[in-house]
Design a protein that fits this description.
The chain is an alpha+beta fold. It is about 50% helix and about 30% strand. It is built from five helices and six strands, in the order H-E-E-H-H-H-H-E-E-E-E.
Length: about 200
């Protein structure tokens, strides 16, 4: 009877120890799993500081980011290519910046404008050329775009207002300080550049 009682108590003690070990292991594994998920979730969130107060920033989807970056790249390229004061050094600097953002089709248009005397005319008449973007239509599947803008050429004697429509395609390229979006305008052409009535 005593031996039977000791055997039962030993089995009970062994069962209690095993149950405690299994429960502790499950609790530890659940805790580690929960902690890993929390840390991973926190790493995927971005916080923006406003003074001393952190705000959770929402991350947009990659496709939406690409469309926004592509449109920003297209607008910046057109800004560098068409906005210029009557300053030879600035025109050269601005056009060089634009050349980093596009393929040889932009260089071809720049050379055509140079041959027509567009840049020398800006300098000789002290004209200021500005471009305002109306809209950019971008197809994220084909990566083709159409840019709509208004160009203003202000001279001392008269001002000229022109409509500008260009089209092209966007390709990925490595990011650099001269091309922060890591995109390239290719097959770029001017569809329309005509005078508008005031």
């Amino acid at each position: 009877m005593l031996i039977q009682s000791l055997a039962t108590k030993t089995k009970l003690a062994l069962f209690t120890v095993l149950a405690t070990l299994i429960a502790s292991t499950v609790i530890c594994m659940f805790t580690v799993y929960t902690c890993v998920n929390m840390v991973t979730g926190e790493r995927e969130q971005i916080y923006v500081l406003d003074g001393d107060i952190p705000f959770l920033a929402e991350r947009a989807q990659l496709e939406a980011d690409f469309v926004m970056e592509a449109k920003a790249h297209i607008q910046l390229f057109h800004h560098y290519f068409f906005n210029m004061p009557p300053d030879d050094d600035y025109i050269e600097w601005s056009l060089n910046k634009a050349m980093y953002m596009a393929d040889a089709t932009a260089l071809k248009q720049k050379n055509a404008l140079t041959e027509k005397g567009f840049y020398s005319d800006l300098l000789s008449t002290s004209a200021v050329c500005t471009l305002t973007c109306d809209s950019i239509i971008f197809d994220e599947h084909s990566k083709e775009f159409t840019y709509y803008g208004k160009q203003m050429i202000k001279r001392r004697t008269r001002s000229q207002r022109r409509s500008l429509i260009t089209s092209g395609k966007i390709e990925n390229t490595p990011r650099s300080s001269n091309n922060p979006h890591g995109l390239l305008v290719v097959n770029w052409k001017t569809i329309e550049n005509k005078d508008l009535a005031y």
